[in-house]
Please model this.
Amino acid sequence: MQVGEHGAMQEAILETIRQLPHFSGLAESTLRRLADASRILRPATGSLIIHEGEPCRAFFAVRQGAVRVFRVTPDGRMQILHRLGPGRSFAEAAVLNMSSYPASAEAIEDGTEVVEIGAATFLALFDTDRSMARIMLTSLCCWLRDLVSRVEELSVLSAGARLARHLLDLPARETDEGLEIVFPTSKKEIAERLGITPETLSRQLRRWQDREVIISKRDRVVLLKPDTLLTIAAES
Model:
């Protein structure tokens, strides 16, 4: 790689790290040390970035595309923990206090790029830079809040309530038919995220369509009665 290309790559890495919400307050010198210990990965769609159980070597920031963090249950089912887009990071907690990754992560969109931030430099900064310790505490609190929400969702809410909450969290636009929601992923991936089978998801959508709550289409739904869906989402 030529010097100019290397410099451009480092600036791209630096900008990606700088845009992470919990890293934005770090000193420029700290950001540059992290960038110097980083590289850009371009994994093919469907390929693993990290594998559950492998030794922690780094944490990661999504530069473009999307990444799915998941675990595989003993009976072979995939349980999706997070779907992350640009500006999101993952595996910081594993680097801080685990010898191996507790979950796997894979690229799920063409053109995905992630910045791999080396564990050794990160841990050295964590030990010597008080601002780094503060921002990581904030980051871990955010992850804990998300995980508590996921536990509640999977253990307390019915399949219908989980699906209703998921739909209401997605962007919607006004159409002549009603509020249209386009699925950002396949129905199979939505089912995996919600901890239900694709068949259960399809049955639930058909049931709501029969009740004229929604119009179900291949890659989208139209909300005819949003208030009814809100009521379903609040059920436990």
Observations:
- The first helix runs from residue 3 to 18.
- The chain has two domains: 3-140, 159-233.
- The first strand starts at residue 38 and ends at 41.
